[in-house]
Amino acid sequence: MGFEFSLGVFPVIMFFIGYYGLITSKKVITSVIFISLMEMSGIMFFLLLGYRVGMIPPIAPVGDAGFLTYNMEYIADPFPQALMITAIIIGIAVTAINLSMLITLCKQSKTSNWSELKKLYSEGDF
Amino acid sequence: MTELLVYFVLTPILIAVFMYLFSHANLGRLLAVLFQFGLVIASFLLFNYVNNSYSSVILNVGDYRGLLGISLGVDYISSLFVLITNFIFLMSTIYSYKEKDNKLFWFLMFVWQAAIVGVFLTRDLFNRFVLMEVGTMIITILIVYRRDNRKMYHSMLFLMINIVAVQFYMFGMGLIYMQTGVLDLYAAAARLSHLDISYLILPYALFMTFVAFKAALIPMSHWMPKALAASGAPSSFSAILAGIHITSGLYMFIRFSYMFNMINARPFFIVVGILTSIFSVIMAISAKNIKIILSYLTLSQIGLIIVAFNIGGIAYTGALFHTANQILFHGALFFAAGIIAHNYKTLNIHEIDGVWSVNKIAAIVTFVGLMGAMGIPFFNGNISMHLMFGYEGVDTQIIAWVINIGIIIASVRYGKIILGTPKEGIKAEKAIEKNIASLIIAFFCVLFGIGGSQIAYYVFNVNINIFSMPFLTNAIILTIVLVLSFIFTGKIKNDKVTNISRDLDVGFKGMVICIGIFFISILITTYLLN
User: Fold this and answer.
1) Please, is B63 exposed, middle or buried when counting C-beta atoms within 10 Å of its C-beta (0-12, 13-18, 19+)?
2) A-chain residues within 8 Å CB-CB of B283?
3) Cβ atoms within 10 A of the Cβ of B359, count?
4) CB-based contact (8 Å) between A87 and chain B?
5) Distance from the A63 Cα atom to the nearest Cα atom in chain B, whole angstroms
6) What is the pLDDT of residues B91-147, one digit of tens each?
7) Cβ B130–A90 below 8 Å, yes or no?
8) Ramachandran bin of A51, using left for φ above 0, alpha for ψ from -120 to 50, beta for the remaining angles
9) Among B327, B278, B150, residue whose Cα is nearest residue B226
């Protein structure tokens, strides 16, 4: 039972949609949304690594025998899920910081357009 | 010794909490300096132990067997990086000693130290991802430290572009886990060596895109100077970001090159390193902001180091030595730039003149830092530069010379701020702690220059004869180039030149496209080379 390549295509497509969105979006808020989409694609890809058709969840059944009643080969890998909880939390924190800065910046600058923001705050850097 | 490894990460976090509570008290800040000093001593002992015993120290956190837990480990490379990191943070603590009302700054600085040291110590790929993310968040907050719209814009830009880059790492890590079933770097390396090379090209390209972004290689160089120029945090932040944070990118380059040692992408990185250096030199010559000039000078050295890493052999050793040296001389330059900016109330190089008349210590430290950056004899960049390129073929030496001449021109242009007559009303403000920290780093720059051959022998087991003909010839040519540059390089004020850097500025979309271009380039090149 190998990695489900057919399912693995979806995160890759999501990643490229996110990347395309970042290149084409004019507003900062849409960029934040597309970055979140890219983050989700990475998390989804990792989660799919632990998924195999026909496998059972890594939860011990009630009884003394526990996992021993199962063939270990048929138990899904719980490791990616455990890691992705951390990644999801980081993703939420990053999005929250991004949005809070965006709100403050847009309120004071009266724009959320990338090129206008660049003109306002980036010219003269060098 | 093994159990102590975890304290290299934990101690800075404890100091961070302590400083958040007690940074307003003199005793609190003094204790922080003492703690940092203790960490430097401990790092030196660790380095000494690892270097003398020719072994690694490995700690399985939680004492899990096999590959179930996270493991920390040091060899002579990581122990060297940990030692330099802790030293720069000690100097930064002394430099920022009077920042008594900035408890958030103190807290963030020490957590950042823990994150960077953690990146050097951890052997786990996911752990490294988390620590890099922590570092990114801290830099984001430090950029926006003194809140205004410009800092907010640059902070948001930095955060978003970092998140895009880190997704490449995430996918690469997923592919490694899919193929090996482990996230321990060394275990993964062992298992990857049994796989067909075609399975490794994609994860390699993904990892290296992230690493190149962190090391600010071309075409992704823009984020670092912009973050530095916009930062509202005290000047020690600049020294750490340009010196240590970028170096963590170089460190990951070494480690991931080891993990994918069966892949040959050396020609690609040699070209990228050369282009990074040339681009950075052009930007450093044309920029007006002194922090941006220094950050591009840093990147020009990073490009050279990447070239030397990929040449291999003695150049690899030279690159390791030069990494340590560039942290020192750029630390000195950024510290001095902080003092200069404080005295002159500007970062514009055209408005800064006569630093020697205003603040002699800042002038001396700037001079020593620039001499190191140019590789002038008796300063610390000299011997490492010789190790990187002095033993290579003529073609490599010519390229290194061309880049170094560019670095000399940019450095001389910057160094001219020392001379001249300052405007009226500019006075040196008393900042004993800043002067002490700057002078200590400058002292080490000179020490690593004068005693460079002994240090190279002790640390890297390399014998250098500084009285050999090639070494002396290089030293004489360097000195002649320096004198000629000094005579012919003025303060470039021509709009056509100074507008180059402005015209090459890219925004968020440009940076995203640059990441994509790098990824596609390395993917195709690696495929063709293997």
Assistant:
1) exposed
2) 126
3) 27
4) yes
5) 26
6) 999 999 988 878 899 999 999 999 999 999 999 999 999 999 999 999 999 988 877
7) yes
8) beta
9) B150
Closest partner residue to B150 (CB to CB) among A79, A97, A121 is A121
* Residue B325, both tokens: 């040296």
Q: How far is it between the farthest Cα atoms of chain B?
A: 70
Instruction: List, for residues B195-237, the tens digit of each pLDDT value.
Output: 999 889 999 999 999 999 999 998 898 888 888 887 777 778 8
- Amino acid (1-letter code) at residue B525: T
Question: Which of A18, A90, A114 faces B509 most closely, judged by CB atoms?
Answer: A114
- Tell me if residue B234 falls in helix, strand or coil: coil
Residue A64: Cβ within 10 Å count: 6
**A125 part of contact set with chain B, CB < 8 Å:** yes
In the A/B pair of chains, how many CB contacts fall below 8 A?
Answer: 118
Six-digit token string for B40: 């430097």
SS3 B1: coil
In this predicted model, which residue has the larger pLDDT, A51 or B174?
B174
- Residue in B299, B301, B251 with CA at minimum distance from that of residue B82: B251
Contact yes or no for B154 and A122 at CB 8 A: yes
- Cβ-Cβ contacts under 8 Å, B508 against chain A: 22, 31, 114, 118
Whether the predicted pLDDT of B1 surpasses 80: no
CA dihedral B219, B225, B231, B236 (to 10 degrees): 120
- CA of B158: which chain A residue's CA is closest? A98
For the stretch A19-34, pLDDT in tens is 999 999 999 999 999 9
Q: Which amino acid is at B230?
A: A
Which residues of chain A lie closer than 8 angstroms to B130, CB-CB?
86, 90
CB–CB contact A35 B507 (8 Å): no
Residue that is written with structure tokens 């100097």 in the block: B91
What was the ipTM of the complex prediction? 0.90
Q: Are B57 and B120 in contact (CB under 8 A)?
A: no
Identify the residue whose tokens are 């001396």: B364
A126 and B287 in contact by Cβ < 8 A?
yes
Cβ-proximal residues to B436 (8 Å cutoff; 6+ apart), any chain: B94
pLDDT tens digits for range A59-104 = 766 655 555 566 667 777 888 888 889 899 999 999 999 999 999 8
Beta strands in chain A (DSSP E): none
**Beta carbons of B31 and B18 less than 8 angstroms apart:** yes
The Cα of B442 is separated from the nearest Cα of chain A by a number of Å equal to: 27
Q: Which member of A39, A46, A120 has the closest CB to residue B163?
A: A39
Instruction: Note the pLDDT of residue B278.
Output: 93
State how far the Cα of B334 lies from the Cα of B433, in Å rounded to an integer: 15
User: Does this model's pTM top 0.90?
Assistant: yes
